[in-house]
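Sanity check. The docking grid for iron/sulfur cluster depends on where the pocket ends up, so I'm generating a full predicted complex first rather than guessing from homology. Inputs follow.
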Amino acid sequence: MSQTIANPPVVRLGTDYIGKPTSRVDGTAKVTGAAKYAAEYNVPNLLYGVVVCSHITKGRITKIHAADVLAVPGVVQVFSHENVPSLAWFDHNYKDDVAPGGSPFRPLHEPEIRFNMQPVALVVADTFELARYAASILEIEYEVEPHETDLEKKRDDGYEPGRGKSGWMPPPPPRGNPNQAYRKAPHQHEAEYIHLAQHHNPMEMFATTVEWLGDGQKLNIFDKTQGAYNVQQYITKIFGLSKEEARVITKYTGGGFGSGLRPQYQAFMAVLAALELKQSVRVSLTRQQMFSFGHRPHTLQYVKLAADDNGTLQALHHSALAETSQFEDFTENVVNWSGMLYQCENVKLKYQLAKADVFSPLDMRAPGAATGSYALEVAMDELAYKAGIDPLQFRLLNYADRDQNADKPFSSKKLRECYHQGAAKFGWDKRNPKPRSMRKNGKLVGYGMATGVWDATQKKAAAKACFTADGRLTVSSASNDIGTGTYTIMTQIAAQTLGLPLEAVTFVLGDTNLPEAPVQGGSWTAASVGSAVEAVCQDLGKSLLKLAQKMDDSPLKGVDFEDVQFVNGLIRRNDDIQQSVVIRDVLQANGEKELTAESGAAPDMMKQMGYSMHAHNAVFVEVQVDEELGTLHVTRVVNAVAAGRILNPKTARSQVLGSIVWGIGMALMEETIMDHGFGRFMNHNLAEYHIPVMADIHDLQVVFVEEEDEIVNPLGVKGIGEVGLLGVAAAISNAAFHATGKRVRDLPVLINKLM
Amino acid sequence: MNSFTYSPPTAVDAAVRERINRPDSAYIGGGTNLIDLMKENVAHPTHLIGLKKLPLAEIENLPDGGLRLGAMATNADTAWHPEVEKRYPLLNQAILAGATPQLRNMATNGGNLMQRTRCYYFYDLATPCNKREPGTGCSAIGGYNRIHAILGASEQCIATHPSDMCVALAALEAVVRVSSPQGERSISFANFHRLPGDRPELDNTLRPGELITALDLPKKGFAKNFTYLKLRDRSSYAFAVVSVAAALELDGDIITDARLALGGVAHKPWRKAEAEQLLIGKPATLVTFRQAAAELLAGAEGHAHNAFKIELAKRAIVRALKQATEMDYVLDTNAFQNSNP
Ligand SMILES: Cc1cc2nc3c(=O)[nH]c(=O)nc-3n(C[C@H](O)[C@H](O)[C@H](O)COP(=O)(O)OP(=O)(O)OC[C@H]3O[C@@H](n4cnc5c(N)ncnc54)[C@H](O)[C@@H]3O)c2cc1C
Ligand code: SF4
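Predicted complex below; grid placement will be based on this.
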């Protein structure tokens, strides 16, 4: 009989946590307020900095009336380009891990204004209230130059970006003969799809508290970020600090959605002020200032699709033109997915940028895919109607069993099961295909569906494990928990790997004193940090086994690591589970206080090379429309997701629920309105930048389709933070069409577009 | 936000005297609007006169059969007051259609009347605004104006008054009671808010320093046939794109009295006697409703982003009148809870 940990006997039970719905281990800390966020570290002798942002979009500062502000008692300093000390000169010093190509924006570097709400000064005072007041009276004179912020005016200025941003892939070259195939096909559809800029708006505003630790210039930087290491390397490179001098700590993050992937300017400012003033400084942004940096870019997309009478896709063209700043080429994968989601021999994809006088866009939940899949999936729906085929059937007919972009098989792909299980749960068969044919309570009812695909990525990550004689295990890695449940799933993985009760395990994250982990993004944390945690616990387990074998009368003498299992607080023999050692006793018996291991995990390139690795989903939506008044409610959503192994169905479900809500916002509400005359976003607050409220949310159901994948990583997880968003906005748009017969091709679908 | 002092007087005359003596002072009710305006540096009083300790939070019956709503009663307490629920359900609906429970718990009746427009430009010091700084220009004209007025606007300002409660108060013909060192006076609701004209900085006809002490509701509450229909960009916690307060008295099929007020379309709740006259004495039919809607919207003018409101308002009026007529429909909670369905 041979049993291994990866394939345990049925008797393993008590400490098997992976795959079990587990409540957040940090839940109590969060709801009781014990969880501390960046702006809540009340270190002694704290000064407060408030950022002043530009009122103009383009031009230069001609005068800063700092003296008037400095005259206010309690104001300590006004930092601006006029008095910032000389800092690092080269662009690469300002590049962070996720910086796109180009020349990163340098806060307070020069008098030039490149975008509206550009941070131009930091006013530091003894109290927050005083700093805020002083910032409000700082007068700045500008020389104004004409600006252009409107992508619509840049339609002819598109260019293909060069390489730059990690993870970005230029679209693959065309395949087949898409133009000819399109012309010849009996069913054709072409249309433009548009959405404006959208802002992340996590609840927690960006903030940094820098604790000045004395003249060795050592700083503790409590920062709101999705990547402590990323902030550290950014800060150290700019300010010429060593890593020891700049410890970055981020224990809790009140939402990120991509906004914290890049270090934000308040971190730079707080460090600058602390170093210059040799005192602790906090800088928090306002909600308005949350609209002063990256956003999902305003994007114009054109899709051309054609099918034959059997419903086989004959041609697929998808092009996108997205805004970027004057100084960086922000790129995201918008169109590539279209070449991979469906089987099609004739494909042409194009991705272009146009420069506008805005801040560089920034990855926002499912960057690129949320944009691209919206256009593709509405276009697919449109073509399905033209070809007279049920939209679900149409997708099944064109199911891709192979990634044609990469010409590789998928490591696993259970999208077909997503379609079947989702449709069954939703009751898709009850759909009358005719638009405007279904009604309920005097309202038009529409059913719509759409699909999504997202990368399954693993990054290199490291972790440390420490087991102490009191039976407690602490595992750590400088990862992050932006609300995703990282604390919880890492605790589950560690507890199960070493067979300890959940309560005996603590996972520590968000600190550059811990082993390095990648920024939390791309839905790769579970795969990357999870693999590192499993690896380090296995290493620790090996050491524990060695010690256990040294114990008197140890029943484990002579057995290999593969021949034992860690379960229920015991190390026991696979061949006779009665033969065991209590893990807790191992250190004491050997007179040891603690046992540590440090290791990591990286993707197995050899194994993965031959495969395309992705998570998929299928979304089914019911809407009810009051046509006369143009109002639409999403009454029902079923989101079927195939994302490999689900580590924690509870937190994973939360991620997908959050994604659906996000998708409802994207479909019906979210847009940051730019007044192009001013070049300024105008609805820069949560009263006017609408995201869904509870009353907008009705019946949401999540289906996890079982999917085994041994290629993606040893844990078999694909990540769940983003895929659930895909398809939601398209499915809602499609349902709105089914209900009303009106096709809206620019998001969000507001009252006035349906009435 | 500038620094300020605070005092909570306990008597109305002391409060108004303090307000007059300190021209740079402001009354503060729940603070849900004023504090935001101060944070945005749109308002910068150096002294706040807290109204919480004034004896103005009562809701009491009036000898003439009406109901007095204290200026310092919260929006929540007002909406859920048994007399309001029973006799003025239109007001209950309108208040509950506004903001969120948290805001309504803080917001006062006086503050609700006095809340300022939500025009984006008004709140943003980076842009010119005649209401904030007379003479600087109106950025909304030619700018982004989805939430702006289609009726009664001027070349100086196209802002709307954002209140829901006030739309019902206009329909119910409430009377605003105010106090000043000169004594007390009453202002009819129709005359309380004003159109922007060439003085867009003035939202209403209060004289400097005057304090709202109460709102008097006349006896007639239209408790049988009424609807507050609010259309907005999400189901809660959003200001009206268009809202309608409709109140009818019916004798069989015939409308014997009618009130119709619009929110989200003008610098004040929008009423027009001619529109209501078109309803009175007529059968409660869609044809009648459409005529009234057309009359109420007569002269409406749209801008680049809000022209749709003209047609939307007409449809909303017809729907609201229909719901008011068929009260069983209204009482289906879904019909107004989810007024966007
Ligand atoms: C995010 C958000 C959403 C909202 N949504 C809605 C909505 O959907 N519908 C809606 O109707 N409202 C909405 N509101 C507005 C809310 O109803 C008002 O802010 C509230 O009614 C103001 O009352 P307050 O007591 O807090 O006023 P305060 O903020 O205290 O005062 C506002 C103004 O009134 C003056 N004032 C206060 N009391 C008196 C008095 N007795 N006499 C004279 N002057 C006085 C103050 O000096 C100040 O100028 C929303 C508000 C917010 C912040
Ligand atoms: S509409 Fe009125 S409030 Fe808005 S910008 Fe114009 S003047 Fe100011």
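Relevant for the grid: The two ends of chain B are 40 Å apart (CA to CA).
Also worth noting: Confidence is low (pLDDT under 50) at residues 329-341 of chain B.
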